[in-house]
Amino acid sequence: MVGKGLRALACVLVVTGLLLVVGPSAVATPDAGTAPSPTIQEEGNEELTLDDADTINIEMQLQPNGNATVFVDYRYLIGNNTETEQQWDTLSADVDENAETYIGEESDRWQDTLEEGENETNREMNLSSFAVETDESTTPREYGHVEFTFEWESFAYVELNRIEAGDALAGFMFDDDTELQMSWPETHNATAVDPEPDTLNDNWVLWDGDSAGSDSHPPQVELIEEGAATNEPTPDDGTTGVLPVDGLVAALVLVTVAAVAAVAGWLFRRDDDAPAVDPDESPEPTDSAAAGSGQVTMPPPELLSNEERVLRLLEERGGRLKQQQVVSELEWTEAKTSQVVSGLREDGEVDVFRIGRENVLTLPEAGEDNDSATEATE
Known about the structure:
By secondary structure, the chain is an alpha+beta fold. Among the domains are: 50-225, Immunoglobulin-like; 299-378, Orthogonal Bundle (Arc Repressor Mutant, subunit A), CATH 1.10.10.10. The chain has 10 helices and 14 strands. The protein has a 7-stranded mixed sheet. A 4-stranded antiparallel sheet has the order 5-6-11-8, with no helix packed on it. The longest helix is centred in the last third of the chain and has 29 residues, at 245-273. Mean pLDDT is 75; it is low at 24-44, 228-245, 282-293 and 371-378.
């Protein structure tokens, strides 16, 4: 018994010694159920979302038919911050792997804007061809980009050679981090921009979010087509493809001489074909005699210039005509009609004013008559 007691005492002493050496934390009981220590997540390691973009640049590339290609660029300033670079790498990879999900969310946002635009403009619109990609740039600073692109059908209102754009954005909300840019073909010039932009260039305009969203209506531009695009190839001798002034004058003289000769030849042929009249006879008055009494017989349309054809059509319609009627009557394109009318207006041959969304042409004397009639009515 004494031996067993000594052995038990020795065991107790050994265990006590171990506890003193390694400490109580080294001994774990199976039923202790100790919880793991909490993970401390640094603030810089939070994941990025589209809403975290430093700036959002929206560009509307206007097309002559009223459609627009839209670019929505979510920009993240990376700089030299390692944590930010890791956040951007995570977001970029997620966008690439789940592109359809991101496209669906972005499409829903713009579909809401489109519906507001349809209610405001009464134009039927459509969004299509959505795509998304990620990229990085280093100028002027290092940025990460998540860029969406899509097509917006009937974004702008088109009338002949005039484009009005911006009313479709009636339901879009701008914030201080948003930039809106509208660009247009080089064949068009801006005649009106509202509100005053932060940047205005030859064929694009840009508003910051604070200026774009400060007014009661969305930013708008009005464009006028100045003529066909001058994209002809440049000659090999280094000169431009524009006809010199002297050559242009000579060409105009030749065209004028040819036109006069054609009219004179037609008149001579007309006189030769007329039947001979006996001077002793007193013929009955005819339409030709009536014409000789003051009425002028106009040459056929094919011998008239474009300007003369428009003026003749105006005279036949009482001196007042819608520009769209000129397009249909003469079977011209809208661009050609607008160019001819612009020349006549600059020369003072016609007056142009608007009724609603339509251009109306009048002869100057007809306009004066209309003003007199209006004053008499009053």
